[in-house]
Amino acid sequence: MTRRISWIRAAEKDFKKFPINVQDQMKNALDIAAFGRKADIAKPLEGFGSGIFEIALPYQTNAYRAIYAVQLDEDIWVLHAFQKKSKTGIITPKQDIDLVKERLKRLKEMLK
After folding, report:
1. Which domain holds residue 81?
2. Please, what sign has the CA dihedral across residues 110, 30, 94, 61?
3. What average pLDDT score do residues 21-29 get?
4. What are 58-84's pLDDT values in tens digits?
């Protein structure tokens, strides 16, 4: 059974600004999640418990991220998509973590 991939509108808008190659690879990773598996470029997002994953993809000299949830609903929910510009190594920037927390909270309330 394949699950539907749903998007927070702002995440989808940001995602569409990514290079086409990045979008294609991330869509592939989301399709794998929709089949109940985890792509090699996805990993659990630390600090969120189970069910929240981050797709991390270096491309040329940039880094792109997409955060998705698998345990909220019947759907896979893409919560956030961004180009990582932090100079803190591989750590996801705090402002992006805070945004994911806020979107996750609002989505949970909406799905009740």
Report:
1. 5-111
2. negative
3. 98
4. 998 889 999 999 988 899 999 999 998
